[in-house]
Amino acid sequence: MLLDVSFLANLALFALIMLSGANVPVGELPAAMQAMSALLPMTRSIAAAPAFTAGASWDVAAPALLGDIAVGLAWATVGLLILLAIERVAVTRGALEGV
After folding, report:
1. Is residue 35 part of a domain?
2. What distance in Å separates the CA atoms of residue 42 and residue 86, rounded to the nearest whole number?
3. What global pTM score does this model have?
4. Which of 30, 45, 56, 83 could be cross-linked to 60 through a Cys-Cys bond (beta carbons 3.0 to 4.6 Å apart)?
């Protein structure tokens, strides 16, 4: 049985929001979830947001934001590679169904 694409997208979004610290501070998550949080984009930006609202300068939060940009680019690269692999299979089969 193939899972619905919308379900998978919503599941990924929920995991991203939950593990990034948007709803629950990362420090309150179990250790395994904290480790996964470090691999996700947004985590460092969400942690840097209070510094900006307190009036901190760019120099204070720049490392966190640049770290998130690097993580985001890494995930974008992985996503592009997966998309290219799916496209290659779809062209070979002549259909996207079941890829």
Report:
1. yes
2. 27
3. 0.73
4. 56
Is the residue at 84 inside a domain?
Answer: yes
**DSSP state for residue 29 in the 8-state scheme:** S
Task: Kindly report the three-state secondary structure assignment for every residue of 77-98.
Answer: HHHHHHHHHHHHHHHHHCCCCC
CA-only gyration radius of the chain, Å: 17
Task: Give the pLDDT of the chain (99 residues) as one tens digit per residue.
Answer: 456 778 888 998 998 898 998 888 999 999 999 999 999 888 998 888 888 888 888 888 889 889 999 999 999 999 999 999 988 988 888 876 665
Give the tokens for residue 61. Answer: 């939060």
In a domain, 98, yes or no: no
**Position 51, amino acid:** A
The number of folded domains in the chain is 1
Domain that holds residue 70: 5-93
CB 99 within 8 A of CB 89: yes
CA 69 to chain centre: 11
